[in-house]
Design goal:
Number of strands: 3
Structural class: alpha+beta
Largest sheet: 3 strands, antiparallel
Helix content: 40-55%
Distance between the termini: 29 Å
Radius of gyration: 19 Å
Number of helices: 3
Shape: flat
Strand content: 15-25%
């Protein structure tokens, strides 16, 4: 959800769609995406993560696709955004991270 509209997505073995809602006009557009017969779960992302993990464990791949610190930072930003929404105030990320990161 943003200031001008909202995106809603659905994905299953039978359907994969994105709905776009424009707040100003009230218009709703639906985009149907191809449904593949391949791996499911976050659009195949789960499969990719597990494949990469197995390669790391086997020693055939020495690099992570994204460092864990980036993942932690993105989660902290999401939690701070929710706190901001609930409390109606700007969140100082340096302070938020200092208080909530381990």
């Amino acid at each position: 959800m943003g200031t001008k509209g909202e995106l809603n997505g659905t994905s299953s073995k039978d359907t994969s769609e994105i709905e776009i809602i424009d707040f100003a006009s009230g218009a709703r557009d639906m985009i149907s995406l191809p449904v593949g017969g391949g791996p499911q779960g976050y659009g195949g992302g789960d499969f990719g993560l597990m494949r990469h993990f197995v390669r790391l464990v086997q020693g055939s791949d020495q690099q992570l696709p994204a460092p864990a610190a980036i993942s932690v930072q993105s989660h902290l930003m999401a939690f701070a955004a929710e706190k901001s929404r609930l409390e109606g105030k700007v969140i100082d990320m340096a302070e938020f991270q200092r208080l909530h990161a381990w």
